[in-house]
Amino acid sequence: METVNPVKKFRGTESANAAATLSEAVMVYTTDGKKLYVHDGSTLGGIRITMDDPLVASHKSYGIDNTGVSDTSTEMQNWIDYCETQKARGYLPPGTYRIDSGLTVDVALSGIIANGALIDASNMTSGAAITLTGSVKPPYNQAHLGISGFNLKGPGRTSSVDGLYYYTAGGSGQGPAHTAAVSINIRSFRRGIDLYSRAYLLNFNNVDASDCAACVYQGSGGTDYGERISFAKCTLYNSDLAVYMNNDNSAMHFTDCSFDFNAAQFDLDGGRIFLVNPHIEATNYASIPINIANANGAFMSIQGGWILCTGSNTVAFATVGASGKLFVHAPFVHNIGTATYFVEGDGVVNTQFCAGFNIRGNPPFASAYEKGLIDGGFEDTNVLDAFLTNDTATITSKTSGSNISISTSTSQSQTGSRSLKASKTWGVGSSAAFAIATPVLPGNPYRCRVSYNKPGSQTGTMYISYQWARIEINTNGVPSVIKSLNIAGDYSAVFTSSATGWVTDTSDNPITHAPQWATHCIIAVNMHSVGAGDIYFDDAIITKTV
């Protein structure tokens, strides 16, 4: 019979224990740290024993190499399987654990916790480094399990290897749901986190992913997956794409997360993404970084946060298909691009209460969808958005006065077939002015643009200004500006006897927000100092900006 020796017990400090390699079965209680360690004859500092996270099997118990020299996939899987039979989490000590084939963890039975260990899958050629599945129905009692505290490295973003793969085949209700991944660094995979069948109600806290073709990926064709997948304080960075989603029934929630220096940020072919206080940063984008496809349910909401570029970006921030939707509410926007529009495409776009530095690096207009004018191209036979504001006589008609009248005309056009013609009867010094107006919401920023053409020989100076205005209907039944405030200084068009051709003026004004008293934003045109004749206007835009 084997002789059973008594367990030796010692006391000492944390530092003294950490420097010691003691015989097997020696236990040390640290007087300063109040911790208990058991030694095995080879592990420096021994193995800590805790009540909260019991060590069900050490890496030495299964011959697991923690130096990264040899493939330890089989030993690691055997250890995980044993942890599952004990229905307890397994602790992975610091070290490098090389796996040349993937591991599978049943999160209904066990989980992995670590303290900075590196699981190195850089020799793998296909599959997933770690597949997380679940075998118990219902999965509501799995919240105490999960994975945490390790680094996961793959063979590179151009490989066919994925990092964390959430997947359960078959069954009804089983899956890796209700679990958390905490404080994990994932790098150098095709897909950092791949969410597929039975993956739902998942929580990712302080999980970073980098050097991936897609940091987070959710493709189509899965079963019972996608409900309320949450990311908190995570960073997805230095990759080809931050997030891909193609699941109409999915919703991903990102809170206080960073999306840094990815070639593209989001690609939605279906599903919903909610961002709260994000940090979205790049130097320059070579192409539009957010795509919200023309698919039912393709929706993104951005609430607060900071959207910025550190270089001289020239492309739009997003493109939204006809059935897609993008809502942007109260972010700080800095130098995102000098493209004409913040958002391209004909889908629904809504921006509110955006703010930013007063620089040229912010785009002038939110999106073509948000143009406030009914007929800024003046293609209707009737004048719909403009009205007279000053004349030599009392104004009793929106469009016809003693010295000035406005109408749509086919004589000139920059685009389409018609433009707005402003006709002045008398010469320099006679009152003549009109406004192009759209309603606004207080607190929102707007910008304006209009093109003009003087084909005749009249001379003088025409002034164009962009203003906040309060407009009411007067006793003659026509609109009247009762209060106005310039958004920026007047634009002066100095005419000689030569024709001008079409000239476009855009309000290059600071980002200011509509005051509470304003009902409209207007393009105010003053022809007081211009001689008699016709001037044409086309392609007027008044829209929100960011």
Describe the structure.
Helices cover 3% and strands 44% of the residues. The strands form four sheets. It has a 29-stranded parallel beta sheet that branches. Strands 34, 37, 39, 40, 41 and 43 form a six-stranded antiparallel beta sheet that branches. The chain has a five-stranded antiparallel beta sheet with strand order 35-36-44-38-42, with no helix packed on it.
Summarize the structure.
With 546 residues, this protein is mainly β.
Please describe the structure with a list of short key phrases separated by commas or semicolons:
six-stranded antiparallel β-sheet; single chain; 2 helices; 44% strand; mainly beta; 29-stranded parallel β-sheet; 3% helix
Helix amount, in percent?
under 10%
Q: Beta-strand level of the residues, as a percent range? A: 35-45%
Shape: elongated
Radius of gyration: 33 Å
Determine the N-to-C terminus distance.
82 Å
SSE diagram, text form:
Elements lengths: L8 E4 L1 H5 L8 E4 L5 E3 L8 E3 L23 H14 L3 E3 L3 E3 L4 E4 L5 E9 L6 E7 L12 E8 L7 E6 L13 E3 L2 E3 L3 E5 L7 E3 L2 E3 L3 E5 L10 E4 L2 E3 L3 E15 L2 E3 L3 E13 L2 E4 L7 E3 L6 E5 L2 E4 L8 E3 L4 E5 L2 E3 L6 E4 L3 E5 L2 E2 L8 E3 L18 E5 L13 E6 L9 E6 L8 E7 L6 E8 L6 E14 L5 E8 L4 E5 L7 E4 L13 E11 L2 E12 L2
Parallel strand pairs: 1-2, 5-8, 6-8, 7-9, 8-10, 9-11, 10-12, 10-13, 11-14, 12-15, 13-16, 14-17, 15-18, 16-19, 17-20, 18-20, 19-21, 20-22, 21-23, 22-24, 22-25, 23-26, 24-27, 25-28, 26-29, 27-30, 28-31, 29-32, 30-33
Antiparallel strand pairs: 2-3, 3-4, 34-37, 35-36, 36-44, 37-43, 38-42, 38-44, 39-40, 39-41, 39-43
